[in-house]
Design brief:
It contains 9 helices and 23 strands. The radius of gyration is 28 Å and the shape is elongated. It starts with a helix and ends with a strand.
Length: 556
Amino acid sequence: MFAPFASRQTSASMPASAFAMRPAALAVASALAACAALWPLATQAALTENLTTSVVAMSLGNAVTADPPGIASIHFNPAGLARLTGDSESIHNFVASIRTSAALTPGPNFDIGGWRDDPLSNTRTGPVRQIMFVPGYGVPGWRLPAVAVPGVGMAWNKAGSPWTFATDSYMSQAMSLDRTTDPNDPGQYQGRQEQIQRLVYLSPSVGYKYSDTLRFGVSVPIAHAAFVVDTNMRFPNELLGVFGQLQKGWCPEDGGNIIDVLGFGVCGGGKEGMVSPFKKAANMRLEMTAPFDPTINLGVLWEPNPRFALGVVYQGGSKTHYTGYYQFDTEPMLRNFVRGMNASLLGPIAGATLGFPSSIPATQKGNMSAIIPFPSHLQVGIKLRPISMLQLNVDASYARWSEWDALRFQFDQSIKLLEVARLYGIPDSGKLVIPRGYKSLVNFAYGLQLFPFDRLALRFGFEPRKTSVPNDKIDLLAPLPNTKLLSAGLNFKVNKNLDISVTGSYMKGRYNVPANTDCNLNCSNFLNIIYNPYAGQNVNGDIHVRYVGFEINKRF
């Protein structure tokens, strides 16, 4: 494509600006279509199920389907509610911190359309903190070393009745990152802030004791879901780099060029309108919620004898409908380029032909909605207690993250940045459908309990969590590689009506993404329109999650 342009650019028969117009259009379109591809940032958090749900379950690696943990059975297997007798209360709290970092190094023969001095080369993302989303208020603006989330559950069973009713509040999913401490953090281009959470605030549930060995249960968790992403954007794309180099050769330093003014206005944006693949181009903030999103859990528990149990739970998903607002703040580079083009003689004609906007505002904001699936989940577990002092739990789970084939966003108006992306086949700049390509996998979990005394139980858990994010889809907003979760805890019975559980756990994982292998992160293809702020860079990263929790169970 550019060979004809290069050969003609020195021709005396026609202004170079005329031939620069097509790569200019493609370059800006590439950048803005890349902006469009950034919208599915929520996918990120998606694989953190069960990490913040139950103190007892965490201590056993979440392998509790065949031995559901009291009132938390509402989530893990509501049939377990039918094992409760009398009225009871559960007060629980956890504190969790997420730490993630990534190192950037230029790949072999690093070159982005003639640009080689990327300021992000040989840098590392900086400190990470957590934020919060308070339902009904939003993000308070605190940067926290960790997040604490309390919850209260209640269960009611009339003496002799096979029915047990219950409700609980808990965090069924959470992902929280804040990289705003360092304004130069290279991670700012894939999330200055991110808060993805699903808070169950009410969960009407019932367990039914069919016989001494067979129980059933149903629960309806009602959740408040929140989705917040604030990120800076840049577009290190080869096409953009080539056009930036051509601009440098054609445009005078002060931006004035009479031939260009009579042509397509390539230089009309002045110094600030000079394109660079390494410049910050825009900031995007999305904040959406789904205040009322119910799902259903169905459970079965079969305990033929004290030494063996089999449990099955199906956790239904939903097509969660989010609503909220967006805001784009566009830097002068793109705004001035479009303004200069439309101030020339032929630029407006070319722009109208390609469907370009007449201008890009410094800030564009409004209301939006999105359909983000909450995947269904099936888990099967067994409990083995060969001797009275030892119990082993093993679970297998399957979550349908393949439902994340695409995310759908609808805006209340045409987004001026996206209008340029019409060149790439996006006919409606007021909505987007973004493919994700996640996978559904089977994962196993293991829990061990030791009972050295009648009043004491020691708990240990191991959960090797295979990620549903393929290595060629991972990014800094979804830094979720294969991880290993190790847990330990204990339960102490203070008396027949009161017991306390304490848990600590640690999860870690690492990933290595060579340059040009992940088109959600570091591809530098000539016409690549997927968001790749670290094009041509090798990205090596890790994630660490630390968790401490306690639970107090009272019976009345």
